[in-house]
Amino acid sequence: MFKKVLIANRGEVAVRIIRACREIGIPTVAVYSQADANSLHVSLATEAYCIGPNESSKSYLNIPAIISAALVSGSDAIHPGYGFMSERADFAEICKEHNIKFIGPSPESMQLMGDKATARKTMMSKDVPITPGTGILKNFEDAREAAKKFGYPVIIKATAGGGGKGMRVANNDNELEQNINLCRQEAEKFFGNPDVYLEKYLVNPRHIEVQIIADKYGNVVHLGERDCSIQRRHQKLIEEAPSPAVDDKTRQKLGEAAVRAAKAANYEGVGTIEFLLDKDKNFYFMEMNTRLQVEHGISEMISNVDIVREQINIAAGNSLSFKQEDIKLFGHAIECRINAEDPDRNFLPAPGEINGYITPGGFGVRVDSHVYSGYKIPPYYDSLISKLMCWAPNREEARRRMYRALKEYVITGVKTTLPFYQDLIENDVFVSGNFDTGFMNTYKKNK
Ligand code: MV4
Question: What pLDDT band is residue 114 in, cutting at 50, 70 and 90?
């Protein structure tokens, strides 16, 4: 096992990882920006190093500072959490050069999945269903012919994009030409790679993702799916596991496809295969997230697998401690991402000092957070305060437990999204479970 693990992250995920390390018995190293000196991850870790000023670019994205902290502290592994360095193949490579284990997949798997056109080709070769689409576009004529074949609408995607960045929908030939040009310009500017390709555009699908875990010996196990359809501008708001739209047969097929996808990428570690699901229960590979995800906790609740503990174990070279047939999914879990944002002002970030804080509790309730009463939410990073997760034997009981927990939760001093969720959780469409990625476009708060 590792001697010491450095956590190259902040906030609730840093706390989550420190807790897992402590339970395994590994000393931890926190790194923090000046703005985070009073953050919980700093006090919970065995040691802590300030790695730079407030801005992420000078601290949590500052590779020389992070590597220096790892070397000075004698850390033999770095956990990147999510965001920041978590999907940076170049960072994983630098870790390797310094004999530090990057807790995640190899730089090669990250690169393969980071390029969407290559990822699609890889999936196709392993019979993982993908949406009808093209390879990298060579000229406009090819694009127009492909669009004619698939039928409008089509979506133009930057091969270097992902998570909703670098994509545009086109409804006719005119929009196609315009949007290909815009998409190429943006892709060049943001990713340094102008390559784009086309896919047939699925209108309001569900976003379904499958959690997988792979060890370095080629064993891959999935933990079922999460439904993340309720999102706003590609920010997930509420997630649940299992999906109300996935029956046992579809779950089996999704799981098997996800395992094939991970094997195709020669994947090691924890990862997520993202699919779109249409009304006829057809699913299509979208992308693979080669990191621990924010919403991993709801999969933990229904599978009883400690995903972060398992992730660290695998990175240390151990084999998976269970087989697919050992995984029995039980019950239903829902997560609300509680943010310091004003839901009445278009979710405008609302940093500031939390002056009162009472968390909900009780059976089946979990709150993952780095905040406390008196904590000042800095304006420099994302505004996640906590993840409130509720488990129950079935969806309706989990939903009612979530309603109860949301009503118990007190956060004062800053505006939060708690009232938004208290309303959403009672919404008829949400109650029915019959929603898709278009949900937030039609959802209106009825005051
Ligand atoms: C799509 C799509 C429809 N058709 N691809 C957005 C995030 C990225 N992972 C893929 N995305 C989409 N790709 C085809 N061929 C619709 C989306 C999409 C979406 C996907 C999941 C959750 C929310 C979304 C919101 C808008 C668009």
Answer: very high
Neighbour-count burial of 386, counting CB atoms closer than 10 A to its CB (0-12 exposed, 13-18 middle, 19+ buried) = buried
| Count of C-beta atoms within a 10 Å radius of residue 197 | 21
Rounded to the nearest whole angstrom, what is the distance from the C-alpha of residue 201 to the centroid of ligand 1? 8
Q: For residues 102 and 80, is the Cβ–Cβ distance under 8 A?
A: yes
> Which pLDDT score is estimated for 445?
56
**Which neighbouring-strand residues pair with 358?**
410
**pTM for the structure as a whole:** 0.97
Q: Residue 118: what are its φ and ψ, rounded to 5°?
A: -65, -40
User: 16, 184, 206, 291: which is the annotated catalytic residue?
Assistant: 291
Q: How many Å is the Cα radius of gyration of the chain?
A: 22
Residue 165 has pLDDT above 90, yes or no: no
Is the Cβ–Cβ distance between 208 and 277 less than 8 Å?
Answer: yes
Rounded Cα distance, 434 and 351, in Å: 34
The C-alpha atoms of residue 113 and residue 115 are separated, in whole angstroms, by: 5
pLDDT in tens, 284-301: 999 999 999 999 999 999
Query: Using CA positions, which residue lies closest to atom 17 of ligand 1?
Result: 164
Q: Is 291 a catalytic residue?
A: yes
CA–centroid distance, 164 to ligand 1, in Å, is 7
